[in-house]
Amino acid sequence: MLLLGTSGWVYRHWMGIFYPLQMPSEQQLPFYAKHFSTVEINFSFYRLPERSTFEHWRLQTPQDFIFAVKGSRYLTHMKKLKQPEEPLARLMERASGLQEKLGPILFQFPHTWHLNLDRLQPFLDLLQHYPQQRYTLEFRHSSWLIPEVYHRLEQAGVALCLPVSPTVPLDLCLTAPWTYVRMHQGQWGTG
């Protein structure tokens, strides 16, 4: 099954192009969900919404709609997976407001952070506390793209995110029975 969507749905420059002009913001997600089967919640990378917000989004979309949730930069960029228990538990508690519409959770790592297996493995182990959830990791530094990391992801059932961008390293390695592809740079790759 292929799910196609975008990273976020609230963009002013979409007015008159995708959304009808003057469409109120509270009508944008239901409109979006008529045209796409999924969306990546990018907002959660910058500020984790309350559970009630996730619940509201769930109610605004069709039964078969899926939300991917981008994990907080607090965990990936600031703490760099150090002491991940509390931030992950908070993310899971709030995102669970999506219920059956909760799809994969994406963790994107900074392009300046080099390979650190001592932090990766405990994080992968911690993800196993939420066995019903799917995860994907996007490594933006090429030092992570090695067989040892792929093996650990595969053992944990975590998908390697496949970024399509002129500035992010890509390795077409599958580590789970599903994958997550991200097209970066706005209009890059369109023709």
In short:
With 191 residues, the protein is an alpha/beta fold. The protein has helices at 28-33, 43-46, 51-59, 73-78, 85-95, 117-127, 147-156, and strands at residues 5-7, 38-41, 66-70, 102-108, 135-138, 159-164, 180-183.
Can you give a write-up of this model?
It comes from uncultured Leptolyngbya sp. This is DUF72 domain-containing protein. With 191 residues, the protein is α/β, with parallel strands linked by helices. The protein has a single domain (5-183), classed as Protein of unknown function UPF0759 (TIM Barrel), CATH 3.20.20. 30% of the residues lie in helices and 17% in strands. The protein contains 7 helices and 7 strands. The protein has helices spanning 28-33, 43-46, 51-59, 73-78, 85-95, 117-127, 147-156, and strands at residues 5-7, 38-41, 66-70, 102-108, 135-138, 159-164, 180-183. The protein has a 7-stranded parallel sheet with strand order 1-2-3-4-5-6-7. Strand 1, helix 1 (28-33) and strand 2 (38-41) form a beta-alpha-beta unit. Helix 6 packs parallel to helix 7 (147-156). The chain is globular. The mean pLDDT is 93.
Attribute tags:
191 residues, alpha/beta, TIM Barrel, seven-stranded parallel sheet, 7 helices, 7 strands, DUF72
How is this fold's topology laid out?
Blueprint (H helix, E strand, L loop, with lengths): L4 E3 L20 H6 L4 E4 L1 H4 L4 H9 L6 E5 L2 H6 L6 H11 L6 E7 L8 H11 L7 E4 L8 H10 L2 E6 L15 E4 L8
Parallel strand pairs: 1-2, 2-3, 3-4, 4-5, 5-6, 6-7
Helix pairs in contact: 6-7
InterPro entries: DUF72, UPF0759_sf
Protein name: DUF72 domain-containing protein
Pfam family, one: DUF72
